[in-house]
Write a sequence for this structure.
């Protein structure tokens, strides 16, 4: 992807606070035309932080207006407290064991999963998505069915490290607004807008930062609400609101310290499972309707299709239209939830839960049962005092799990270094380690919350590039519990980022001694030996990585670098091209092909590779420099001059001072006298 400066909080200060008017008399109604669909997903928003749900902590006037003009599902549950798997459930109507996505980053939605976008595309809808963070990048399969998938340019592609893997709600809105203005089609559209801002760290723009100085999370939600108003205003100004079904749903909540969890991902209580869900559809959905019965985000896609009069089954969910229109609720309805995050990343037990009949059961080494009517905060575990209900829900959970075909194996993917860094910059953890030692799965996450809070604070520093501070926290955590895979990952990579390769090597070796092996770890060892010039060791580690995961982009790419350094140019080209088979957009592999071919004397083939690199990433300054140098070597001076000038235009003095000086000298040398 090409480099682009993302909108910062300071640039968001001009957010519109105007009221949105709904249902203008001049607008067409849904009965007059094929209805459009606008789906807004709110990342990391608690249901109890909407003022239409009674919050006194924050005002959300734009979402409140949608609720007053439509239906508010006040007991909606997500299936998992993680962005990618939660959105996969929203889009497919399936629980994670069925769609196969169990964590961020290391999973990809399988192509055989039917998505809402695919259904609507098949019914003549123009489909477009506008994404707020890299965690939903097309790389993870969530773009299935979208004609347009605007997932941003997540920073500078000439680095494997990246700390700009999100964009503001205003930037996402601008992308949506431009698309809406420029679209030429007359047919119906489905637009998905993903707003990421409430995710930690909480840094709302002004005036929300000052207004909510004591609660910046609330400030982020207030800012997001204001942008929701701008999005809806775009529809109204084009007289589209009256013919558009507007759906708003949260992917997961935020713990904010409840049950010892500061953010989300680990536990499956209401603080992270209870989400907002609203539907607004003039003329089709009654206004001011509140549905207080149990509902699920997997029900949203079937409900949408029902209201769009598309009779196609999707997922495990059920249409909520009968409930909205006054039919009696299904008292046997249950809501499944899970977090495999503890087992995948920490070596602790996974968590699975089932809510039904006013109770939530959580399957853990120490099972839990909560009476949600009497104890909505889930403070009193009643597993011992109410064993009948606990046993019934546990049996129901076991039956449901047995009925779901677990497809997680073929949904998992190897994550390259650039993807890892983008996810880390968002505060996410994703590992590809082999299974932890026997017995570690008996560790109950709720018994480790003090340690997890410390690890979270280290992850926050790590995501901000404060590697020295993060290291101290991670090392203390490792001293307390040496069986946590992510600690070895993050300690090792922190040392790499601090150029302390000897210490990084020792940590990775300790990880292997504890039984934690992975393609990522071996690829990082290969990188260390490559930088030390120990190419035989580097080759050994990288080949070991490929035995563990043949599809490891990092291992192929770094092995190609090793072969290029040892003048095995044909082998280098082979592995760079394997990278491109796995990820055609990995522009630095194209550059590597060009370099290896040029060094091997295959000038025309090298030229083609360099041209491909700037075609794929036209904003990548170094690509033009390599192209220019090669063109000059081939004595194609006018073209070389043009490429040098393009490099000067795209590059910054701070980052490329030496190269810019060389390019300027080349321009002077090549200009006609």
């Amino acid at each position: 992807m090409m480099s682009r400066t993302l909108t910062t909080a300071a640039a968001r200060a001009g957010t519109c606070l105007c009221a949105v008017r709904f249902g203008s008399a001049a607008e067409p109604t849904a009965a007059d035309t094929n209805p459009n669909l606008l789906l807004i997903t709110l990342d990391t928003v608690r249901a109890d932080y909407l003022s239409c749900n009674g919050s006194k902590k924050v005002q959300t006037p734009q979402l409140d207006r949608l609720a007053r003009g439509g239906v508010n599902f006040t007991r909606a549950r997500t299936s998992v407290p993680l962005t990618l798997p939660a959105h996969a459930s929203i889009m497919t109507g399936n629980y994670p064991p069925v769609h196969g996505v169990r964590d961020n980053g290391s999973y990809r939605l399988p192509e055989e999963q039917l998505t809402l976008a695919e259904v609507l595309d098949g019914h003549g809808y123009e489909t477009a998505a506008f994404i707020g963070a890299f965690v939903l990048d097309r790389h993870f399969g969530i773009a299935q069915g979208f004609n347009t998938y605007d997932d941003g340019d997540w920073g500078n592609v000439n680095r494997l490290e990246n700390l700009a893997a999100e964009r503001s709600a205003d930037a996402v809105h601008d992308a949506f607004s431009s698309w809406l203005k420029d679209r030429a089609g007359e047919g119906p559209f489905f637009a998905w807008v993903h707003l990421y801002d409430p995710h930690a760290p909480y840094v709302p723009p002004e005036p929300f930062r000052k207004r909510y100085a004591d609660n910046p999370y609330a400030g982020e939600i207030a800012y997001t609400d204001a942008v929701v108003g701008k999005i809806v205003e775009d529809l109204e100004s084009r007289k589209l609101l009256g013919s558009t079904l507007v759906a708003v749903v949260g992917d997961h909540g935020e713990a904010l310290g409840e049950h010892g969890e500061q953010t989300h991902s680990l536990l499956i209580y209401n603080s992270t499972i209870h989400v907002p869900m609203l539907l607004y559809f003039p003329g089709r959905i009654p206004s001011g309707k509140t549905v207080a019965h149990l509902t699920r985000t997997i029900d949203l896609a079937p409900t949408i299709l029902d209201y769009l009069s598309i009779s196609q089954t999707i997922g495990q969910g059920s249409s909520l239209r009968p409930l909205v229109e006054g039919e009696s609720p299904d008292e046997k309805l249950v809501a499944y939830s899970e977090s495999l995050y503890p087992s995948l990343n920490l070596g602790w037990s996974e968590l699975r839960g089932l809510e039904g009949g006013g109770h939530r059961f959580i399957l853990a080494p120490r099972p839990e049962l909560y009476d949600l009517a009497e104890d909505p905060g889930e403070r009193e575990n009643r597993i011992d005092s109410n064993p009948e209900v606990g046993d019934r829900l546990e049996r129901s959970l076991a039956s449901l799990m047995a009925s779901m075909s677990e497809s997680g194996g073929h949904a998992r993917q190897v994550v390259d270094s650039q993807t890892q860094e983008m996810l880390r910059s968002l505060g996410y953890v994703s590992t590809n380690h082999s299974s932890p030692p026997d017995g570690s799965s008996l560790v109950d996450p709720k018994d480790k919350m003090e340690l997890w809070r410390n690890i979270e604070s280290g992850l926050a520093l790590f995501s901000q590039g404060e590697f020295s501070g993060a290291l101290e926290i991670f090392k203390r955590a490792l001293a307390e519990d040496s069986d946590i895979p992510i600690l070895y990952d993050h300690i090792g990579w922190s040392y790499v980022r601090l150029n302390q390769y000897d210490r990084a090597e020792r940590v990775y070796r300790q990880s292997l001694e504890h039984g934690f092996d992975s393609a990522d770890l071996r690829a990082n060892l290969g990188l260390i030996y490559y930088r030390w010039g120990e190419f035989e060791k580097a080759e050994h580690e990288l080949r070991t990585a490929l035995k563990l995961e043949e599809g490891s982009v990092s291992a192929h790419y770094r092995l190609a670098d090793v072969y290029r350094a040892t003048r095995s140019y044909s082998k280098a080209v082979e592995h760079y091209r394997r990278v491109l088979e796995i990820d055609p957009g990995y522009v630095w592999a194209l550059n590597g092909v060009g370099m290896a071919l040029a060094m091997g004397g295959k000038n025309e083939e090298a030229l083609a590779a360099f041209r491909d690199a700037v075609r794929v990433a036209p904003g990548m300054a170094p690509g033009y420099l390599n192209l220019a140098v090669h063109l000059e070597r081939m004595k194609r001076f006018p073209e070389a001059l043009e490429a040098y000038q393009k490099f000067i235009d795209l590059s910054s003095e701070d980052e490329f001072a030496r190269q810019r000086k060389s390019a300027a000298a080349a321009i002077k040398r090549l200009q006609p006298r």
